[in-house]
Structures are given as C-alpha cells and as structure tokens.
C-alpha cells in the first residue's frame, strides 16, 4: 500500500513534504503563525508543481492560493 503511494510521488516532493512536516512539528512548540504560513505555502506550491502536467486546473488553483497566502504573510510580517 505505502509503496504504491510513494511510487507516484517524485523524490523532491517527498523531501519537501518531510521538511515542511518537521517545520510544523517544531513550530507546534513555539506557536508562530508566520512559520505555519511559510510552511504551508511551500507545500502548496510544491504540490502545484507536482500536479502541473496531470491536472493543470488544480495546479493553477493551488498556485493562486499560494500567492494569496504569500501576500497575506507579507502583510502579517509588515505589521
């Protein structure tokens, strides 16, 4: 079961996902909203890049959500 799930994912996406999950786990103890937004934006954009060839419309929606999260993050950090 797990082999078939990981077989369809590229190695770079698995490494990015592991890095984001480690970042979110460490942030669980510090509770910083900006770190959560950065981690989820990175994962969102990586997922959009991964889906670009197979499901382009979903990838475009994910990229738009990533840009919106990035803009909100910039607004949050400037205040």
Automatic annotation (TrEMBL):
<keyword id="KW-0472">Membrane</keyword>
<protein>
    <submittedName>
        <fullName>Membrane protein YqjE</fullName>
    </submittedName>
</protein>
<keyword id="KW-0812">Transmembrane</keyword>
<keyword id="KW-1133">Transmembrane helix</keyword>
<feature type="transmembrane region" description="Helical">
    <location>
        <begin position="59"/>
        <end position="78"/>
    </location>
</feature>
<feature type="transmembrane region" description="Helical">
    <location>
        <begin position="12"/>
        <end position="30"/>
    </location>
</feature>
